[in-house]
Amino acid sequence: MPVENSEMPAALPRAARDNRFRKALRALYRNRMAALGTILLVAWILIALFAPLITPYEPNEQDLYARLKPMFWSEDGKTYILGSDHLGRDILTRLTYGARVSLLVGVSAAIFSGLIGLMLGGLAGYLGGRLDEGIMGLADLQMAFPSILLALVVIAILGQGLRNVIIVFAITGWVQYARTLRAEILSIKEREYITAIKVVGGSGSRTLFRHILPNAIAPLIVIGSFQMASMITAEAALSYLGVGVPTSIPTWGNMLADGREYLYNAWWISTLPGLALMSVVLGINFLGDALRDAIDPLMRN
Question: What is the pTM of this model?
């Protein structure tokens, strides 16, 4: 009998998690915005992966004789479907290769900042006390500074580079994960099945990793989707200002900066990367909204 009683608290939350997961999947399947967001995101992922197959040119290949050519321009065996920029570089090529940078920054930074937030938020929520006060104080201090300003300061110290941009966003993006996870853990710790596990002698680490974190992780998935979109936009902003990814690497932010002096006679240089940025961010936000709609009602049950 003691063995059966010790298993009951673990079985109940696992069954509840499975039921919530099935309901969330059904809600996502019926959500049209989720389908649209998935289509947009998958399309850009495929474009980024197969960039060398989409265009025959190199992203930094220059031809000053073909500078500022409009869309669908073709001459002497060269065809620029989306036109060329002020250095004669193919816009389509730079768009496809720029998608690699944007998605890499967004996904990597969201994962790393999520891991930092998961660790700090988990410690703050589960252990509490002075450690909780210290971590939340650090979070409040960081939130007092505008994130873009903090990113500029850190990049000024570390220098430009794709790796440094990811590090900056990981450092500046952990707060929302940590605060949300801490609140979830504090709520779950007071539930009856956690109390029952402690009564039958469940260890603290086992309780945290097997019973508390799996029930608290769902809101972080939603946060991660929105963080990825905001980090893609932030990378474009930093590159536009000239302090993000070096200009030798094609990014949508660099393309926006290149075209700001040619808005009247070569509008496609800035407009097309702007539309690309808008579409991928919209896709991620549509999917994030659908995830929130699917998960939030279940979290209230």
Answer: 0.82
